[in-house]
Amino acid sequence: MEKNGYPSIVSVSRREFAYDEEEKKCDCEKLASRKTAWSDSNPGRRYYGCPDFPRGCKYFEWYDARIPDRAIDLLRKLRDNERILAKENKSLRRQLRICGTISAGESNNVNLDDNNSVQSDFKGKVLTTIDDVVNENELRGKIKSLKEKTK
């Protein structure tokens, strides 16, 4: 258990190979994939890692700067709410199948509040928020540095 009473849960979203800077290679000389951590201590923070992890090398490098504690708490709550909604959605689909309203094959095609769109929008907003927070922190650091230089 970490501080704030949250368990140490680690999950990772899909891999990305899109680079907005120089390509990264792991110690296996393979193109390192960029992933998003959803652990309690780094929710939404992106990093590079070996595409063959855990069988491959142990290459790891953060892509994003450290996120402020306040943003971590907000992202953690948003992530937890998304998980709760996903479980509720699954339960509702199961109930529909049990009631005979839809067949098992149809349940995945039923549009319950367009869940895929909602989840996609949510993740997009979270990643945009993370980028905004990181950019703001970088700008604050640069302003502080410039102020110190002009003293």
UniProtKB/TrEMBL annotation:
Picking any one GO molecular function of the record gives: zinc ion binding
Signal peptide per UniProt: none
Entries under InterPro entries matching the protein: Znf_GRF (IPR010666)
| Residue ranges of the TM segments | none
Pfam families in the record: Zn_ribbon_GRF
Tell me the keywords, alphabetical order. Answer: Metal-binding, Zinc, Zinc-finger
For whether the record's keyword set contains Zinc-finger, the answer is yes
- Domain GRF-type positions: 26-66
Nucleus found in the keyword field: no
What name has this protein been given in UniProt? GRF-type domain-containing protein
**Organism expressing this protein natively:** Hibiscus trionum (Flower of an hour)
Q: What is the lineage of its organism?
A: Eukaryota, Viridiplantae, Streptophyta, Embryophyta, Tracheophyta
